[in-house]
Amino acid sequence: MAASFRIYNTLSRSVEDFVPQVPGKVGIYVCGMTVYDRSHVGHARAMVVFDAFVRYLRHRSWDVLFVRNFTDVDDKIIRRANELGEDPVGLASRFIDVFHEDMDALGLVRPDHEPRVSRCIDDIHDVIGKLVDKGHAYVSEGTVWYAVRTFDEYGKLSGQNIDELRSPDEAGGKRDPADFALWKCARPGEVSWESPWGPGRPGWHIECSAMGCKHLGATLDIHGGGLDLVFPHHENEIAQSEAANGAQFANYWMHNGLLTMAGGQKMGKSLGNVINIDVALAEFPAEALRLYYLQNKYRSPLPWSGDALPEALGMLSRLYDAREAAEAMGGEGDADRIAKEMGKTASDVLRLGRDFEARFHGALDEDFNTGGAIGAAFELARAVNRFADHKKARKRGGPIVAPALGAFALLADGLGLLGRPVSEFHAEVKVKRLKALGLDEAAVEGMLAERSAARAAKDWARSDALRDELEGSGIIVMDKPEGVQWRVRCVAPDSATA
Ligand SMILES: [Zn+2]
Question: Residues with beta carbon < 5 A to ion ligand 1?
Fold first, then answer.
């Protein structure tokens, strides 16, 4: 049976019990990308948050139907296409492919439906037709306008006052400054479709009303998107959908906070401060980005800096270290008895491992508190890493860490973290960080071989010098009983690299 949870609803400005329309089922619609360029790490936050949310609900036995759209008809797309002498829908389609590559590289689940505006023109006409018929929209000079004052509840999501509003849509025949375009009259040099009101193209907001209801019915369980979309986009979606269908459009409105740069700036192409997803993924594993986003509250602004990903990678490495240490422990017997014999570090691991599931679910079921859930995992990982220093841990610690290994598996299933074989993780880190630091694996191996030779010859000065040189360039050398091992440091010697 699906587990109950609570979620913050922007509409009521409070955390509410989630009540589905159909028991066990959740329909989620999330506003997707306007596709005219590559996506950056600010976009990735929204994608990762809703991916983790959907993944978690499925982990909790909810039957989730997940829809995220593509805006492939839009002013910015048309402008870019004209610059490049390309067909706008074709250009958008190209960037949808690029977006899919980025999302796959981030390890995200594909939504069940990914509708595109250019393929939903008939659905959009249907909604506009209803609005015209019901007197919520009017036609003027080939443009169809939404008459904002015909919808009494306008402003209920964002708290905006109609009298102070002016929509950016400007063309002839608009009756009220707040009215916005549902269908824009065709202009020379722009892509257009035939319609009952003449040739043109959809306004921005109407697509989500049409696509959401097409796949999820008149009322969505949860509508998601970035906080920057609350007004005007989501306010207008409500006005359109509720006036057309006479039903509440979405029962819960879930908004993720934005990535902020130094000084509180938003990340944006027009601001020239973007880091594209593919660039970040060339230097860091996708899981480091995932951890960076999820260790913070999804609703809060998230500060970005050059240290963000190196720090997240360092934290991720400690989680993998704990799992690796736990997996290496053997022995059998009654865990409580062994913990008593081995002392406090053992009993801490046992207790935290056994408590983990309740803490993990408890945090996530209360407004999707990923930071709390991940915090519990860190507490457990620290305890495991401390216990691993116990001289009998490797031989006898197996029963002590068994609940911890179960906990790490839960983290993988519920949030998509720590799910890969440890060796695969280290191999990826090695390749990407060496490249990011401009180092060459063969050269590192060569220096290590030289250092081993120096040690064999008891030339300690030479051996230490080589070690210092390696560490100075970001290579951590570990002399272990089974031989020399090395890793690339997560944070570069001269602090940030990203
Ligand atoms: Zn939307």
Answer: 31, 208
